[in-house]
Structures are given as structure tokens and as C-alpha cells.
Amino acid sequence: MTTAPHPMLKVAPEVADALAAGRPVVALESTIISHGMPYPHNVAMAREVEQIVRDGGAVPATIAVLDGRPTVGLDDDELELLGSDGDIRKVSVRDLPYVVATGAHGATTVASTMRIAGLAGIRVFVTGGLGGVHQGAEESMDVSADLTELSRTEVAVVSAGVKSILDIGRTLEVLETLGVPVVGYGTDEFPSFFSRSSGLGAPMRLDTPEEVAALMRATWDLGLGSGVSIANPVPVEDEMAREDIDAVIDQALADCAQRGIHGKDITPFLLGRIIELSDGRSLRTNLALVRHNARVGTAIAVSFHARD
Ligand code: PSU
Ligand code: MN
């Protein structure tokens, strides 16, 4: 299946060629680079993940908005810019028209990366962690647009689940309400990013790339119009004990409240504070799980294209 490129997108030639030929492409987001990890680890991670995708037989397409153009497939200088320029705006779906209309740069979240990937005809997207329902959302109504987008864009998102800066149980409830298939990849339990467990079951389990590709096909052939969330647990050797990471997260949440941080700044603040409070331990786990997601997501993309 090939899709005509959307006229507003700037698609790198290598990505455009792969899409036109029906070869597998894996989308990658840029908020994780600009707002999810410190420099220079972020840029090294972005390059390494692209290499993992290539080694697995697909073409990587990191997505961002550059000079107002939604851009699919970045070069080395662009990755460096996103990782090192402190002024890059965090762009979710509602921010997309603003950065496009003003000609600005923007780092795309899971939601806006999904949307742009979908417009480009990319069906698999690898990230670290999903946004979701924030703790205390029953008061604040702070629910990530990542969930809305999963309900309305036909892209499979491979993540390591949802970390407990969020309300994992309510996040799963909202995904059910929105009709989004949520798959535990090789696990019965929904993973909590830094740990393989969360105390909550995965709504369904699949164990191979072929099975996931079949579920993607079924979702879209049924006309659900939604994405698919594939929750891939961090490898055993890299995971953190839940009590260790939960203590760090509780402190980070308290610091966030005490400083009065709110809205779109909450997630980046918490991610940065968790790295500081864990003395970098959480960053190592984060890097390991992103690499693992890239391997699994690439295998899924290869399998999906083999059957399509
Ligand atoms: N969780 C992470 N790392 C990240 C993010 C979340 O472990 O980098 C980023 C992703 O880009 C995600 C966004 O889409 O944060 C969610 O932000 P918000 O909660 O404001 O929607
Ligand atoms: Mn929010």
C-alpha cells in the first residue's frame, strides 16, 4: 500500500522512497529528544535508535516541526539542534497549527508525531513512554492528548507502558473507553516504564511481531480508525525495583506541586527531576528501554509490511 505524500510535509528522500516502494519505515518522536532527556545523551540516543531501526531492516523517520514544516526524517544536524537548543517548543496536536503558521521549530509529542506519521503513511512508531491521565486528574482534568490521538489515528505505538508519574489505572480505563487496543507484548501485566510490573493486567497479550502485525491489520480492516498501543516491558536486566523508582517519583511529584508547575510543563519537569533524584540511574533504564522498543518496533514494522 502506498499513500501520496501530504503536501504540507517535508519527507526525507530515503523515507519517501521506502514509503513509495512499500518498505518498512519506523517513526520516532522528538519531544523525547528535546524535553525527555538531557544533552548530550538525548542526541546520542536519537542516533543510536535510528541505527537500531536500520540494523533491523527498516528506515527510521524521526519527526519534528522545523521552520514551520512538519518534517519526516531528520539529518544529523537537525537531531543536534533538537537536542541542544533549549528554546525548542514542546508541540502536541493543539500546538501544531501555531508552529506551522508562525514558521517555528517544535519537538513533537507522541500525539503530534502519530498525527504526522499517519499523514505520511507510516504505520509503526517507536517511543519510550506514553502520556496519559495525570495523578489528580479528577481535579485538574490533565489528560494527555496522546490518548485522544491513539483513538483517532491509525498508527501502532510501541512504548514501555506508562510511568507512575501518571495514574496508570485511569490511563488504562480511558484507553478502553476510547476503544484503543492495548497489547502487552510478551507479558500479562501492563508495564510501568521503569519496571516490568504495575500491578495491573494488560488487556490483551501477544508474543510475536507477526501476531501484532495481524492485530494491526484487523484493527484497520474493521474500520476502527484507532491506533494500537503496544506495551513492551523493559528488559529484566535493566529494570528498576518499583519501590526505588516510586520513592523517586513521589518526591518529584511533591517538588512539582511545591513549585507550582502546571500544564504542558509538568511532564518535562518530572522527567528531569526523576533523573536528578535517581543520580542518573533512571536515565540508564530509560535508554535501555528505548533501545529495546526500537528492536521490537522494527520487527513489527518488518512483519507488517511482509504481510501487506
Ligand atoms: N514520557 C516519557 N518520556 C517522554 C514523554 C513522556 O517517559 O519524553 C513525552 C512524550 O513526548 C509524550 C509527552 O507524548 O511527554 C506527553 O506530554 P503531555 O503529558 O504534556 O501530553
Ligand atoms: Mn497535560
Model description:
This protein is 46% helix and 14% strand. Strand 5, helix 5 and strand 6 form a beta-alpha-beta unit. Strands 1, 2, 3, 4, 5, 6, 7, 8, 9, 10 and 11 form an 11-stranded mixed sheet that branches. 52% of the residues are buried. It is globular and about 50 Å long. The model has no long low-confidence stretch (mean pLDDT 96). The chain has 308 residues and is of the alpha/beta class. It binds pseudouridine-5'-monophosphate (PSU) and manganese (II) ion. Pseudouridine-5'-monophosphate binds next to helix 2, helix 8 and helix 12.
Low-confidence stretches: none
Which bin fits the share of residues in helices?
40-55%
Could you say which structural class the secondary elements and strand pairing correspond to?
alpha/beta
Number of helices: 13
Bound molecules: pseudouridine-5'-monophosphate, manganese (II) ion
Task: Give helix and strand order, one letter per element, not per position.
Answer: EHEHHEEHEHEHEHHEHEEHEHHH
Shape: globular
> What share of the residues does DSSP label as strand, in percent?
5-15%
Question: Cα-atom Rg, whole angstroms?
Answer: 18 Å
Number of strand segments:
11
Distance between the termini: 7 Å
What is the arithmetic mean of pLDDT? Answer: 96
Major beta-sheet overview? 11 strands, mixed
